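Exercise: predict the structure of this protein bound to NAP.
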Amino acid sequence: MADNLPNLSGARVAVLGAGKMGGILLQAFLKQQILSPERLLATVAHAERAAALSAQWGIQVSNDNLSAADAADVILLGVKPFQVPALLEEIRPALTPEKLLISFAASVRTEAIERAAVEEVPVIRAMPNTPSMLGAGISALCRGRYVRPEHMELAESLFAAVGRTVVVDEKHMDAVTGLSASGPAFIYIILESLAEAGVKVGLPRDIATLLAAQTTFGAAKMVLETGYHPALLKDAVTTPAGCTIDGILELEEGGLRVTLIKAVMRASQRAKELAAG
Ligand SMILES: NC(=O)c1ccc[n+]([C@@H]2O[C@H](COP(=O)([O-])OP(=O)(O)OC[C@H]3O[C@@H](n4cnc5c(N)ncnc54)[C@H](OP(=O)(O)O)[C@@H]3O)[C@@H](O)[C@H]2O)c1
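Solution:
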């Protein structure tokens, strides 16, 4: 029974579909030493990639999903959303209530994963993001119907190793996908544009990029650590008749706010559709 679920220090974890996101998570687990190489397994689709990754990561990487799922206590699903049904079909014989299944595929609902298993398998859906690579990620987690507090605890400690975690209702997972999973790409565009702006006003590119990146980082840190509303922090920068207000005027005229809101809305909408292929 699920009572036997080992804690993180004893669990064997398999990442099925160790691509960009799976690879980031898996390498972070190793780097943070929350899992030793012997307790981490992975699969990918192509045999030559499996061999190369096995050598690179120093863990067992194969194309055999069923064996990996069979050997693991915690199974992470990291394939593309449309590939999840076929993968579940393949590993179904290994899915028992003693295992914990964590899917980080966008769009795929816990209910669809539960239905694909014969038994009452605990399923957690997670939505991490790429800054997990540096321990600066944020992952939202939601629980399926057979999940118990100890399963959530284990999943939270796994994802806490790569950044912050939040627990949300499943109805919010597509919104999370549009905001924090797609979000790094939006921020990179803002950051790249700020750096480009620095070049336009005469700064060397490397200095402009550093100024833009550290400013983005610093502003985010201020929001996270002071707990102040971003508008209040913005007001502290904006002196009457100063330079910042002139810049803000341009941002408002250019519709930056509405553009960002629409970007997250569109990404969230797309997240609802991905599982269908
Ligand atoms: N990228 C992100 O920022 C991000 C953030 C949050 C969640 N996600 C989710 O993460 C999942 C993967 O996205 P990604 O960007 O990491 O894509 P990706 O780099 O293409 O990774 C997919 C991996 O799945 C492997 N694969 C495909 N079919 C397989 C099979 N039948 N058995 C075992 N492995 C198989 C591929 O193997 P090969 O390498 O051999 O082709 C590849 O390594 C998606 O569901 C996405 O929604 C991504």
